[in-house]
Amino acid sequence: MLITLWLRLGAFLGKTLLWLLGLGLLGWALLMAWSTWQHRGPVSAEELIPDGEAAMTQDIIQTAVRIVDQHRESTRYLRDAHAKAHGCVKAEVQVLPDLATELRQGVFSEPGKTWQAMMRLSNGNAYPQFDSIRDARGMAIKLFDVPGKQLLSDRQGHSEQDFVMFNHPNFFVSDVAEYRQNVAAQADGKKAMAFFPGWDPRTWQVRHLFIALATLSPAPASPTQTTYFSVSPYKFGDANAKFRVMPDPDSCPVYALPTQNQNLPNFLRSALNQQLSTDRVPACFVLQIQRQDAGKYMPIEDTSIEWSESDAPFETVARIKLPAQDFDTPALNLQCDNLSFNPWFGLEAHRPIGGINRLRKAVYEAISDYRHSRNAEQ
Ligand code: HEM
């Protein structure tokens, strides 16, 4: 009797589980079909600025200042994002000597030209933490001695072109409104509300939650061994484009990085130091751009959408070399901490476009000024 009861219960639980699995798969398939249907071309080749964006931006700045205040490390104010650097390293960025004519734009106008540059490699978190913790990894590059008018009126004395990236191709929010909602929920400690703001399922951002989870990925073996994406779009002369920086080991001497102890908090810095400083082997990358085809679903105003490579391939415009060097000294590390990288530091030919970039213009400036002024008071 008891055995029959157990067998029936087991069969019932098994069937229920199968049903739930089937329903889950059906739900997933419907979600995918809905998403594919929603995300079809064509799109605008121009920026479309929604009403109320400026007010939302001011709100976000207040939240960002709150985060910086919460995360100050003993006496120093750190960046609001990408606070921990693995190092700032000297880089050489060489425009392809045989670059196609239509790709000769802005700092890539002169084939064969080599720019001296600085590259900051970082973890994405607002607070310095162990490198083994899942996180986005950042790369920021600053080209020096770039002639021409700078985009920001108060940067006219400077001559730089920055490229700011992290190692995931799309962002966990689409636009400024969603960003405000998301960070406000997170800053208030209501993490679930960041992606599920209300009871109405139409407000749930399941796809964006998956992007956020995928962005927080395990650490690469070294900061030189992962691909970094602009995520948001930029002008590229008259075209619109995204860019990425990808490891290009074939352009450098063969090198096998000795296995690092990933239990050490800063093993990504150690990996960089081992290659460039101890073993004195350079690291190589290619810088590539992906031009928008507005006939395809390649939107400017939605950073959650990865532009498909089958719609528009990436094209190499420059090679980047990190020469062997000693970068890990107290003086150079302090200098690194005091540098500011900003997608808006640069030329009109590479103007950042789209809502998330318009937001970054205001936020990076406000936060960078805030931490520099607080640090100057110390
Ligand atoms: C398109 C997506 C984004 C990418 C690829 C990106 C990437 C980065 C990287 C790599 C850094 C570190 C720069 C450095 O090494 O100094 C950084 C810093 C920063 N990011 Fe972003 N970010 C993105 C979006 C945003 C957004 C939407 C915000 C906020 C509105 C934001 C706020 C900041 C701030 C405040 C800093 C620190 C600036 C400083 O104090 O110098 N980022 N970002």
Q: What would you note in describing this structure?
A:
The structure is a single chain. The protein folds into two domains: 1-38; 51-377, Catalase HpII,  Chain A, domain 1, CATH 2.40.180.10. The protein is globular. 36% of the residues are buried. It has 378 residues and is of the alpha+beta class. Strands 1, 2, 3, 4, 5, 6, 7, 8 and 9 form a nine-stranded antiparallel beta sheet that branches. The protein is built from eight helices and nine strands. Strand 6 and strand 7 form a beta hairpin. It has helices spanning 2-38, 53-70, 176-187, 191-195, 206-215, 267-278, 330-338, 355-377; strands at residues 85-95, 114-123, 137-144, 160-166, 228-229, 234-236, 239-247, 283-291, 315-322. Protoporphyrin IX containing FE binds at residues 60, 64, 79-82, 120, 122, 138, 140, 164-166, 171, 179, 231-232, 303, 340-341, 356, 359-360, 363-364, 367-368, 371.
Please give the share of residues in helix. Answer: 25-40%
How much strand? 15-25%
Distinct ligands, ions and cofactors found in the model: protoporphyrin IX containing FE
Broad shape: globular
User: Span from first to last CA?
Assistant: 79 Å
CATH topology of the largest domain: Catalase HpII,  Chain A, domain 1
Radius of gyration: 23 Å
Level-1 CATH class name of the largest domain: Mainly Beta
What is the overall pLDDT average?
Answer: 93
GO molecular function: catalase activity; heme binding
Keywords: Membrane, Transmembrane, Transmembrane helix
EC number: 1.11.1.6
GO biological process, one term: response to oxidative stress
